[in-house]
Amino acid sequence: MNPRKCIWIINFNAVPPQYATMFRHICFARELGRLGYDVRIFGASMIHNTDIGIDTGGKAFLEKDYDGIKFVHIKTKRYHGNGLARMIELWRFPRKILSHAAEFPKPHAIIHSATVPFDTIVSKIARRFGAKYIVEIHDLWPAAFVAYGFIGPKNPLLSLLYREERRLYHLADELVFTMEGGKDYVREKGWDKARGRRVALEKIHNINQGVDLAAFEAEKNVRVADPDLDDADVFKVVYVGSIRLANNLSAVIDAAGLIKSRGFKKTRLIIYGDGDKREELEAYCRVQGLDNVVFKGRVKPQIVPGILARANLNIFNFGETPLLKYGASPNKLFLYFASGKPVLSTLTPNYDLVERYKAGRSVKNDPESIAEGIMSFVNLDPSTYSAYCVGASAAARDYDYPNLVKKLEAIL
C-alpha cells in the first residue's frame, strides 16, 4: 500500500495509552504511522474492568490525539463486569461506527478485533468503502465460552454462534490469529476449502502478541520503593495480572504453602493486581498462615517493567483449557520475556514459546508441580539461571512490535 493511506483499527476494548495494559494496537498505530500510514483506532468510551469512562461531551463519538496516536472513542453506556449490559454495548458499538462511518477519512484497510457474534457487521463497513478487511482473532469465541463454562456444550445457541464465527472467517480478506494454531482450529472445525467449506487456509496468518521493547527499557528504570522487592535476601517470585476465576491463582498460592512447609523460608510470592477473587484469596492466606504470599493490589502499567525486572522469577499462570492445543499468546508473557528474567509457566500449550526459547520452564497447573518448578529455580546454578535469562531476552527481541508490524504490513 502507498504511504498516507488510511487504516482503521476497530477494537471495542482499545483504550488510550494512559489506561492501557495491552498495547498491541497502540504499537501497531505508532509503527504504521512511522511507515507513512494514517491510522485511527476505534474503541469504546468505557475502559473495561474499571469505572473510568471517556467523556464524549454527549456526542456519539469523540476524536482525540494522544501524542500522534489518533483515537475515536465511541460513546458507550456504563457497565460493570461481563454481564448483559456489556453484551448490549458490544452489539451497539459497531453499529454506531457504521452509522457515522462517512464522517471519517475513507479507510483503505480495516483491522478488526472480532468479538463473535456481536460485530460481524464491521464487514459491511469494509464493503461500503471497498476496504481490505483484516479480522484479528484474539480469543476463540464461542469456543472459549464453552471452555470456561459460560455456555453448555449442548446449548442450542452454540450452533448459531459457530455459524456466525464461520461466516466472519469467510467474509475476511485476511485472518490474523494471535495464537499459532489458527489453521489447526479451522481444519478441526471442518471449515476449510479442502472440506468443501469457504475458509481458505492461505489467508490465515499468525501475528503473536508482543512487547514494545523501547518503552519497556525506558520504564524499567522507574523504581518504586517496595520493601518486598528490595529485600536482597529473598528469592522473589512475581505475578502481575488479574485475580479472577480464569487466572486460577489458588494453585499458585497452595504451591507457596508447600514451599513454606518444606523449609524454603526465603522464598516469597509477590502478587500485583486486582480482581473479584482477591479478597477471598487474601483471607485464605491469613487462615493458612501463608506469610510468604504478599498481595500488592493494582499498579500502574508504567511501573510494571521495573517490578518484573527486579524479580528472580516471573510466574505466568492461567487456567488450563482444551483451547491450549491451538497455542497461547497472552500479552503478559511478552512483558515477562522483556524483563530478561526466567519464566515459570503453569501452561503447557502447543507452540510453547517458553520452552521454544528456553526462557524458563512450563509445568502442570497443580500445586505440587508449581512448587517443584519454583524450588528448581531457587536451587539453580548461576550459569543455568543466566542461560534462561538470555532465552527470555531473545524471545522479547523477536516479538518486539517493530518486527511484528513488518508482518502486518506484508498482509496489508
Protein described:
With 412 residues, this protein is α/β, with parallel strands linked by helices. The protein folds into two domains: 6-212 and 401-411, Glycogen Phosphorylase B (Rossmann fold); 213-398, Rossmann fold (3-Layer(aba) Sandwich), CATH 3.40.50. It is 38% helix and 17% strand. The protein contains 16 helices and 14 strands. It has helices at 24-34, 84-100, 122-129, 143-147, 157-171, 182-189, 213-220, 227-230, 249-261, 278-288, 304-309, 331-338, 353-356, 367-378, 382-398, 401-411; strands at residues 6-10, 38-44, 61-66, 69-74, 109-113, 132-137, 174-177, 204-206, 235-240, 267-272, 293-297, 313-316, 343-345, 360-362. It has an eight-stranded mixed beta sheet with strand order 3-4-2-1-5-6-7-8, sandwiched between helices. Strands 11-10-9-12-13-14 form a six-stranded parallel beta sheet, sandwiched between helices. α9 (249-261) links the parallel β9 and β10. The longest helix has 17 residues, at 84-100. The chain is globular. The protein starts with 5 loop residues before the first strand and ends with a helix.
Mind sketching the topology for me?
Layout: E1 6-10, H1 24-34, E2 38-44, E3 61-66, E4 69-74, H2 84-100, E5 109-113, H3 122-129, E6 132-137, H4 143-147, H5 157-171, E7 174-177, H6 182-189, E8 204-206, H7 213-220, H8 227-230, E9 235-240, H9 249-261, E10 267-272, H10 278-288, E11 293-297, H11 304-309, E12 313-316, H12 331-338, E13 343-345, H13 353-356, E14 360-362, H14 367-378, H15 382-398, H16 401-411
